[in-house]
Structure to design on (331 residues):
């Protein structure tokens, strides 16, 4: 038999249910409100949008593939280059992240204003040096500064980086890089104020037994003039146009090496079949073409030039006097 609740029990049960509903409502309200809250640090404003950062990421992914191939040839071994991150931080945070002694190059990228940085981690730097001197890339000491000869070797490496950067940026803005300085202490590198926003792009390079980071730093003031070009659609359109122009140039280069027949016709006339069959050595054919008139030259049976026949030394020649356009007009 089902138990029948008393009135007191019913009132207690109803009060419990109503209090439980009321207690859940504030929690749901708090959760919904928290979902719409985004933490924003006014000391570190995001001056470059996510779409623009994504364009920089795509651009430098292509750069990573190209620089890996070129450096592999220089090092005479396989070298993997992977894009690690694209971050937007302050310049002071970037400098504090660098290891001392370092191999830090500053360079300009005309027509952009200001200077940029490319930094090689000490492990990577000495791995390059070890390999270029014939070693296996194993680094024993990374706590010393570079010698003069080692700096010359790293200048060769960074020249390749500059060249590939110019090619990577060609779709957005044609730049011309120029090295400014090489520093082994990152604290001496001051290209912008400490609180200025910079875009830091990190690459991980794997060379035999050595693994290290190569870091690019673009100050916001350098990119400010071309931020409107750093959109995904603009980058895709520019890439397609450059690819089309490059294909057209390649096709033109391929056509330039082709051989085409060029013939100059002295005169034309018509003869009957019986006269043609009866022709023998010594017969003379008469034409309406005067000896003083110019003759036509044909390229694959298309009239292209007009000129005069003659001799060049002991060889027969043809002097072009007019070029006939594809529409038949002379110019």
């Amino acid at each position: 038999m089902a138990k029948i609740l008393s009135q007191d029990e019913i009132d207690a049960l109803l009060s419990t249910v109503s209090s439980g509903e009321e207690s859940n409502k504030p929690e749901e309200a708090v959760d919904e409100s928290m979902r719409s809250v985004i933490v924003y640090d006014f000391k570190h404003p995001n001056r470059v949008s996510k779409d623009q950062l994504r364009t920089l990421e795509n651009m430098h992914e292509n750069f990573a593939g190209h620089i890996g191939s070129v450096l592999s040839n220089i090092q005479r071994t396989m070298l993997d280059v992977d894009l690690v991150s694209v971050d937007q931080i302050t310049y002071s945070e970037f400098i504090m992240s660098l290891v001392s002694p370092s191999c830090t190059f500053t360079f300009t990228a005309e027509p952009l204003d200001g200077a940029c940085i490319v930094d090689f981690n000490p492990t990577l730097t000495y791995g390059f040096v070890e390999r270029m001197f014939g070693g296996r890339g194993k680094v024993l000491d990374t706590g010393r500064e570079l010698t003069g000869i080692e700096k010359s070797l790293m200048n060769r490496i960074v020249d390749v980086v500059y060249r590939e950067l110019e090619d990577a940026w060609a779709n957005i803005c044609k730049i011309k890089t120029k090295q400014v300085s090489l520093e082994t202490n990152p604290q001496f590198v001051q290209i912008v104020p400490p609180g200025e926003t910079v875009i830091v792009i990190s690459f991980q390079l794997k060379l035999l037994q050595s693994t290290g980071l190569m870091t690019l730093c673009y100050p916001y003031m350098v990119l400010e003039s071309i931020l409107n070009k750093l959109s995904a659609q603009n980058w895709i359109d520019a890439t397609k146009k450059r690819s089309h122009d490059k294909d057209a140039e390649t096709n033109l280069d391929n056509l330039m090496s082709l051989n085409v027949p060029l013939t100059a016709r002295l005169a034309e006339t018509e003869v009957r079949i019986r006269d043609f069959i009866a022709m023998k050595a010594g017969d003379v054919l008469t034409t309406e073409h005067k000896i003083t008139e110019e003759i036509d030259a044909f390229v694959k049976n298309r009239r292209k030039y007009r000129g005069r026949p003659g001799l060049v030394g002991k060889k027969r020649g043809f002097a072009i006097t007019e070029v006939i356009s594809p529409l038949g007009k002379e110019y």
